[in-house]
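Dear colleagues,

For the upcoming journal club I promised to circulate an example of a predicted protein-ligand complex. I picked one with nicotinamide-adenine-dinucleotide because it came up in last month's discussion. The inputs are reproduced below in full, followed by the predicted structure.
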Amino acid sequence: MNQLFSVRGQAAIVTGAASGLGLAIAEALASGGARVTLLDLNGAAVERETGRLRQAGLEVRAAALDVSDRQALDTAFDAAAAAHGGLDIVFANAGIDPGPGFVSVAHRGTRVPEQQIENYSDERWHKVVGISLDAAFYSIRAAARLMKPAGRGSIIVTTSISAVRPAPAVGMAYMAAKAGAAHLVRTCALELARYGIRVNAIAPGPFATNISADRADAADFRAAQTAAVPLGRVAAPEEIQGLALLLASGASGFITGEQIVIDGGASLGAAC
Ligand code: NAD
């Protein structure tokens, strides 16, 4: 049973790995004995965190890239596979922008004029879709290319509970992109099953990371998130690690095409 969740000796890539969930996932994989490439837009932060993990004796490397740049992503995936002798596990995790949405969190139910659909900008739409949907496609495509020859692999995309049901305090592009990524996961899982490659999604509820840190109403948003969770709290980033190891390892060998929600019960309905 000790081997069930093992990732020892496996080669892994995590995108969006300099902060929050990606960093927690990279740390879990590396602590479990995987060789991990951490990719992030924030070059200084990913170098700093990778240095910290290396100091702890873990086998990690870093590269800076924008995951929505498909050529840069292909190049980074090729370099990771070359450095670590193949590719077994990919977490397509980078993401931006939860919120604001079309209702105010401070004044529950009040519409925010500038967030209504007629005022939603093309720029915001394309930026969010480029990172949360296009980059999920680029990541799965690059992973499949590198995993197919070995006939095995596990690809995990971070979606969101807002892929399952609308979250009015979060922007519309984010919800649409995450729902698209969830269905992309199902489609790719069906296609890649024949090659021994599993594709799944993790759909988090509220976790305390940096993604909403620059919202003007961040404190109200956090309070509203907490109130909506039956378990009564926002999760720490480390609480993603068990599910990440499940999906990365042979413990989930018969699971593919799934989107697993991890949200403290938030999607069950109102906390009571
Ligand atoms: P975070 O902001 O703490 O970390 C995201 C990381 O992604 C950052 O290090 C950032 O630099 C990196 N990044 C952003 N754009 C990038 C790009 N174009 N290329 C490469 N890297 C980029 O946020 P987080 O909460 O850890 O987010 C991780 C994933 O979890 C995202 O996909 C997010 O949508 C999803 N998610 C988070 C929550 C939550 O409550 N925190 C809930 C549901 C889903």
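Two points we might discuss: Residues 15-16, 18-22, 40-42, 66-68, 93-96, 131, 158, 160, 204, 206-207, 209-211 surround nicotinamide-adenine-dinucleotide (CB under 6 Å). The domain at 11-263 is CATH 3.40.50.720 (Rossmann fold).

See you all on Thursday,
B. R.
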